[in-house]
Design a protein that fits this description.
Blueprint (H helix, E strand, L loop, with lengths): L1 E7 L2 H11 L4 E4 L3 H9 L5 E6 L8 H7 L4 E3 L9 H10 L4 E5 L3 H16 L5
Parallel strand pairs: 1-2, 1-3, 3-5, 4-5
Helix pairs in contact: 1-5, 2-3, 4-5
């Protein structure tokens, strides 16, 4: 089971989406950004999902500092929410540990990112 840290402005909503749609596949945790990023770095949890107003600022700032820029991915930006298919491709294209997105895109981004992470962990093709 994947362990996913839910951070940022829509942390509660993100956690609820994971608990509702991915029970038995992913565990949603919610702590401060710094603790979450450190848990991912130490291997205590698998992934970090962070939401903010821009998708790439506050949502990923701590994750970038702790995990490094190459381990972080901006999934959505203000005014541009990718489709679930595009999100799946982004997840499969790299080995990112942290994902940032605009809080208004939570309902689209979170299910798509988590489904792709679950499928990738189970060895399913893109």
């Amino acid at each position: 089971m994947l362990k996913i840290e839910c951070c940022g402005l829509s942390a509660t909503q993100t956690k609820q989406i994971i608990e509702k749609n991915f029970a038995g596949q992913a565990e949603a945790l919610s702590v401060s950004d710094m603790i979450a990023a450190r848990r991912v770095k130490n291997g205590e949890t698998d992934f970090y999902l962070g939401s903010c107003q821009t998708g790439g600022g506050g949502s990923l700032a701590t994750a970038i500092m702790v995990l490094g820029y190459s381990n972080c991915l901006v999934v959505s930006r203000q005014g541009k929410c990718p489709t679930p298919k595009e999100i799946r491709h982004m997840v499969y294209a790299g080995k990112h540990k942290a994902f940032g997105y605009v809080k208004e895109h939570t309902d689209v981004v979170v299910p798509a990112v988590v489904q792709a992470l679950v499928d990738r962990a189970e060895g399913k093709p893109e």
